[in-house]
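Async update (no meeting this week)

Hi team, since we skipped the sync, here's where things stand on the single-chain job. The sequence we agreed to prioritize is pasted below, unchanged from the tracker. I ran it this morning and attached the output directly underneath so nobody has to dig for it. Comments welcome in thread, and please keep replies under the output.
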Amino acid sequence: MLKKKNSPASMDTVIGEYTTIIGNVDSEGSLKILGKIEGDIKAGGDIYIESTSTINGNIYGSNVYVSGKINGNIIAKGILHLQAQARLYGDIEVSSIVTDEGAIFQGTCKMIELPEDEAAATSSGKSSSRLKIRHDDLDEDSTEI
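Output:
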């Protein structure tokens, strides 16, 4: 049985595999990136960083799905999903994180809590149990969770 990949029903903007953008990218909708971007990415919707992509800059979005390589920070109001091929070198600030086996993340993580109305707007409507760790709950001397 084939594993279904998270992909949107429709995509506002697609940046192709053989495209390089030097500069910032701003969108009110969703983005799917297959190419290379040297700059910050801001989207009002979801951001999909595919396995062929390389990003050198910060990313700001609702939900961020990563399969490619990122050198920069990520702020996601909803889910950050690091898929098996993901390589993330930077800090993250998210309300929820999912990592697949094989993903690499080097940086610090800050968990944020959204107000109820914002959390409902960014959720996908699926109910699942996720481990949520608040930064305040961790012991500074603790190495295990």
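Quick observations from my side:
The longest helix spans residues 116-122.
Helices lie at 116-122.
Reply here if anything looks off.
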